Amino acid sequence: MDISQILAPTSVVQGLLVANKKKLVQVLASLAHEQFGVDEGRVFETLWEREKLGSTGVGHGVAIPHGRMTKLDHIMGAFVQLEKPVDFESIDDTPVDLVFLLLTPIDAGADHLKALAKVSRLLRNPGVCEKLRAAKDSTALYAVLTEPSSGSQAA
Asked: Is residue 90, in this structure, part of any structural domain at all?
């Protein structure tokens, strides 16, 4: 599975400014609605319920909010680079500035875990994160996220 199979160039946002975690999740739900046509309220609810179980802030300024939803027919992703990091209650207490949203069909099974693992591996790479933080527009962000040397080749 390539990142380009779940992430479209139009689903990448550079320089987003939000005040806190809840506002970020609201913006992600709105982005998912705009990009994928899914119900914004359902997306917010799904992501927020997942956050209540434990933060999806995986450390080093990275968060991977994710959830399974009904009425999806394929895995969908969006990426946001924040202008200023926000507290996301991450495992290392580092504020988050790189956020990869992952939504999967309720019955995705192993594909959900494969997609999550793929995104996690990509964003654990310090070189990739450095390039993402240096990117000045969404086109550059998408290129970094989908370049084969970033680890987006088949899992």
From this structure: yes
106/123 Cα distance (integer angstroms): 24
- Number of separate domains in the chain: 1
pLDDT tens string for the chain (155 positions)? 789 999 999 999 999 999 999 999 999 999 999 999 999 999 999 999 999 999 999 999 999 999 999 889 899 999 999 999 999 999 999 999 999 999 999 998 888 899 999 999 999 999 999 999 999 999 999 999 998 765 444 33
Residues labelled as active-site residues = 66
> What is d(CA 26, CA 31) in angstroms, rounded to the nearest whole number?
9
CATH number of the structural domain spanning residue 79: 3.40.930.10
Strand bridging mode 66-69 / 62-63? unpaired
Q: How far apart are CA 142 and CA 10, in angstroms?
A: 9
